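ingest -> validate -> predict -> emit
validate: passed (alphabet ok, no gaps, 313 aa)
predict: started
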Amino acid sequence: MSAYGHQMEREYSTQSLSSRGDSELGSRYSVQSRFYMTSFAATVFVGALITVGVLLTSILVALVVMLQSCESKNSGVIETSGNHDYCKVLALHAELNRLKPDDIPSICKVHAIKYIKEGQYMKDLISTISVAESYFSSITPGYDGLDVVLFDIDYLFPPNFLNINLLPYSIELFWSRADQYGCDNCVEMARQMKHRLVLNLYAKLQARGWKLFLLTRKSNKQHNATVEHLISAGYEGWVTLIMRCGEQMQMDSSEYISRRRTLMQQEGFRITGIISSQMDALTGPCLGRQVFKLPNPMAYITEQTFENQSLSF
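emit:
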């Protein structure tokens, strides 16, 4: 081959290699460009943005909740999770110390309504009466007739007792019926049910031979009306009806009841048990062997709460 042919061959080979190199680089560049622009990369990027947004939102919500909690505590409001226990303790002190309605937070009045409507009041009442029945069934009165049970008859039965329908003793049926009405109705039904349960206890004690002394804070000027009231409500066969007279009307109720218990003891009577829903009858001297406190959800509810209804329990 001539020198010119060799030169042409070298130039052709160089161009061929150069062409293949450029082609490979272009191909490589094209492949790499398609890899970084795929939908997968875009999805990952958008997902990361959403995750960061959710985290920031969660942090913001947590800060708002913490701020509201701090504001509630600073304003003296107790959180919902602790309201029940707080109000329960406060109700006890309301009875012990005779707190005024204005001293009771409104949240506790709401809890008192729920206490009745949701059935816990009736459960507590049944439990208390069961404890009293168990106690009196385990002992017997003495033959001398001096062992007595003191019944606080105030608040034991509803004011409209003459119109009481015969309510079932089934607690489940009772509350299922109560839920059909507003809370005003369930309060009235609870009060009537209390009357029936306490009257049943009264009848059992009487049948076992216990001497029953009835106590009221009313004036003896209302003696005849009170006797008619009691008989109509089913309370019969008591030994004594204790009522206020003269200067006793000016006494504090706790002092009046304490003095009457002391007098009973001086006369030789033995108080085996006292049954009441009011603390003034269950404190002071000469309490006897046992006292039974019936639950009283109205310790911290004013009459205005239920539109001026009589709510004494």
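The domain at 83-306 is CATH 3.40.50.1000 (Rossmann fold).
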